[in-house]
Automatic annotation (TrEMBL):
Signal peptide per UniProt: none
Name of this chain's protein: 2-haloacid dehalogenase
Xref: SUPFAM superfamilies: HAD-like (SSF56784)
EC numbers on record: 3.8.1.2
Enzyme's top EC category: hydrolase
UniProt keyword annotation of Hydrolase present: yes
Species lineage: Bacteria, Pseudomonadati, Pseudomonadota, Alphaproteobacteria, Sphingomonadales
Hydrolase among keywords: yes
A Pfam family assignment: Hydrolase
Organism encoding this protein: Novosphingobium fluoreni
An example Gene Ontology molecular-function term: (S)-2-haloacid dehalogenase activity
Domain of life from the UniProt record: Bacteria
InterPro entries membership: HAD-like_sf, HAD-SF_hydro_IA, HAD_sf
Keyword line: Hydrolase
Amino acid sequence: MSEAKPSAREPHATHHPVEAIVFDVGRVLVEWDMRCLFGKLIADPQRLDWFLATVVTEEWHFQHDAGRDLAEMVTERKALFPQEAALIDAYATRFLETIPGPVIGSTELLNRLGERDVPLYAITNFASVFWAEFLPTQPHFKHFRDIVVSGDEKIAKPDRRIFDMAARRFGFAPPEMLFIDDNAANIAAARALNWQVHHFNDVATLEQDLLQRGLL
């Protein structure tokens, strides 16, 4: 998972009907914030800000999303910040505590699409080890016919290769798929490859877009 700042709703193309929907996971279907874990472990707000900006950063975490070995990353980071070793270990062993729950309304929306038998897929920047822990906690992900996980493939969004791989695996041409993500760079990459896109901001706006497309 990686940080994103959502912006205005994306206009959608009208020249091709959507045959499949492809979701991002973090900050679209589930909340993700490393403060949810480290806020429990670091009482001082200024020290917490420093730690998340300097030690366990989202940029550093992205390396694991992209397939870098967790043990290697942790060992290297502890060598750089030996005084923070216990907290760096917490990143490795308590990662699911950075995911406090679903984005409000997202589970219901996913279930509605699944009940309509809309072909649903996902592309997620998610470390392989953490994904193996996380997936069993999400029974509603049964609606997905396939999920491309960056840590498994060692390719992360916005690299075009992960979108090309997903299109091959899902069996739809990019213009036939609607890609939903909160990250502007990921949206731009998908659009450049002729995917239809929705830059996610909130569930209500997404629901309205899906209604206008005739998917709900």
